[in-house]
Design the sequence.
């Protein structure tokens, strides 16, 4: 018998992976949560049947969502991750020597607990002494903290269901207020190939709030189309002006100083989205 | 009833697309050839059940395989495409004003004929007056022509079955001899995420023959992992030294002068492949 897991990434497109076994499956207060072991990508975290991260390619997403804003900022001391209960973004954040505190605010306690059990290589820094884990609503947390963080990372699920509010202009406004006067936020904002309307709208919203708005991309095999983007809003520092020669060599598999620059260079069709 | 076409991109990974109808299907002298109409990517050309090109995302592959070498060369007049019977690479080549002649050498006459019938937006330049279409073995053609082309594009299927010889060092040696003294060739060389051994071997082979060897990448949703690479061997011109400010604006959707530079900037794990 062969088992294949299929995610329908759009109503007319799917990715299908041969599966060794289901390691965990439950219905949490918020969503269906599962960890399966696939042949191609190893262990894979699923929320409502959608691939969140896999041990084979998680490095791309987590390195790119964390190091690009952290190295754009001159001296980040305090960072917040909204969502990201698997801990991958936190793991990358604590690699930065200047970081004194990293807060994770994840709404679903079970995502954290299951990641700790089944994805130790991703969640490994959640017990780091610099890390505070808050189980709660990220929108509420952001609204209750003002002028506090150097970097905020919106490490959310897709903009349907529980994460919808994390893609709204009201939330970006709260993020602005939650950042210090030279703060930077980054949000994962889906695929430039198939989420054009969403990205165009987000860019417009962020531009209306932040003096510097940028879009950057990377290659993630298990996400729809394999091509993914992040939107950055920055109060002071421009990632295009980062002195990449000053970026220290850190332990990464995708991110490097040259990629810090190249990730912002968009193909023509994607440049149209940020006009 | 719903019809879904699934390509198994590896033994443990597949892409699946909802399909409106099969427009064409036949067994040619060389392979199974089909054109299907999918909801997500429109018309799609399949050879032996493997996606070759789709009307939705073909622009990435064809622009990147053609314009990068053509704009690296200072004054390309004569270009050869080995394979590429759909005509997409030829369509891009004839956009260059300096091109006087473009030869297509495709082994399977039916690929050309079926592309002309079902993929007119891709094959549209095959009847251009600058284009010569040769139905024949690309290896034989290259071996019989010496010191003749400015740019050679190896627009092949995967390195199994009929195209295997197009990934061999003997063929690259013949390509070297077929190029003029300042010639450049580019070959499609699969995915940096899952074809690491192949790419490492090709880079080593090309380095042993050409003074300048480069790897560049782009994002192609319908190819395995969505992240694709091309290997360039050049006798004189280095694409990293192209004066990108001198590149004229041409009608493209992915390629642009900035991408000409950025495509060669590789994430850390891919840089390992070319060491």
Sequence:
């Amino acid at each position: 018998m062969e088992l294949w897991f299929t995610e329908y990434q759009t109503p007319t497109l799917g990715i299908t992976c041969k599966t060794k076994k289901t390691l965990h499956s439950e219905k949490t207060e918020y969503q269906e949560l599962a960890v399966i072991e696939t042949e191609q990508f190893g262990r894979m975290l699923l929320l409502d049947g959608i691939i969140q991260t896999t041990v084979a390619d998680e490095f791309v997403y987590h390195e790119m969502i964390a190091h690009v804003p952290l190295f754009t900022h001159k001296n980040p001391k305090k960072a917040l991750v909204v969502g990201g209960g698997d801990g991958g973004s936190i793991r990358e954040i604590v690699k930065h020597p200047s970081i004194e505190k990293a807060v994770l605010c994840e709404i679903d306690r079970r995502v954290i607990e299951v990641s700790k059990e089944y994805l130790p290589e991703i969640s490994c820094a959640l017990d780091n002494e610099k890390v505070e884990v808050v189980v709660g609503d990220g929108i509420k947390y952001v609204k209750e903290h003002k002028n506090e963080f150097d970097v905020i990372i919106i490490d959310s699920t897709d903009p349907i269901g529980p994460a919808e509010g994390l893609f709204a202009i009201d939330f970006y406004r709260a993020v602005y207020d939650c950042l210090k006067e030279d703060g930077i936020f980054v949000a994962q904002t889906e695929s430039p190939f198939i989420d054009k309307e969403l990205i165009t709208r987000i860019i417009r919203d962020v531009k209306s709030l932040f003096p510097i708005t940028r879009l950057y991309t990377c290659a993630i095999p298990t996400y729809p189309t394999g091509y993914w983007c992040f939107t950055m809003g920055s109060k002071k520092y421009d990632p295009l002006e980062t002195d990449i020669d000053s970026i220290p060599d850190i332990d990464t598999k995708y991110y490097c100083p040259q990629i810090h620059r190249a990730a912002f260079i968009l193909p023509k069709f994607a440049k149209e989205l940020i006009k």
Remarks:
- Chain B has a mean pLDDT of 97.
